[in-house]
């Protein structure tokens, strides 16, 4: 249960940053938890790439695929994005596990859709169901999600996404019509990965390694600026949405799964306060879990 004072601090932090926030944090080992609006549906955006990662490793553990299997990625038809394969110009050949690295470390949309084509959307949803993520569902791939945004934005294109009226009609920002979850479902998934319940230890270690290589330090990790505290996570971003889920590990062995989702009325692409509050809120929640 979340004590009243902690809930008030979390709500105040979200309000000061100008966002609506949804959060759940849990001690991976004891099960102690903190949350605000933890069971409300949220748009996952690129956070859903974590579900793809887990599905990939579950299938590998079952012998349904080999993580060293090579995939071809020609320049034509790549899912748009500013990072990784999506931004490259020449043909690429790489393994499934290196594709997963790009998907998670730099949130590469092309890499994510390559893996989705290999494992299938239905498999991602079966994995979520097996792990008890009752409110988590993948509706479409990442290229398809971006396609709905182009359709919904209309002739104004990307420039129209600065218009609050256009934002209200984007299917990608409606949990009922896009990839979705809840903060509690996401911490349940993280806990399963860290306890080797999602896949055998060899594959759990591989997933944890990849998540620890994410390059973005400005959200969840910003709340834990210590050399001896390790943060492994996955961000997600869409117009007005900034999310991150991950696990914070302390040198004394404490492990805390945290999921923070935010939305703001502002359409600006750069809002440092909205990014930073993810770390601030996570720190408030973890400090509450670590309190004597």
Automatic annotation (TrEMBL):
GO terms for molecular function: beta-lactamase activity. This is Serine hydrolase. It comes from Streptomyces coelicoflavus. SUPFAM superfamilies: beta-lactamase/transpeptidase-like (SSF56601). PANTHER family: BETA-LACTAMASE, BETA-LACTAMASE-TYPE TRANSPEPTIDASE FOLD CONTAINING PROTEIN. The keyword Ion transport does not apply. Gene3D superfamilies: DD-peptidase/beta-lactamase superfamily. Residues 23-262 form the Beta-lactamase class A catalytic domain. The keyword Hydrolase applies. InterPro entries: Beta-lactam/transpept-like, Beta-lactam_cat, Beta-lactam_class-A. Pfam families: Beta-lactamase2. One of its GO terms (biological process) is beta-lactam antibiotic catabolic process. It comes from the Bacteria. Keywords: Hydrolase.
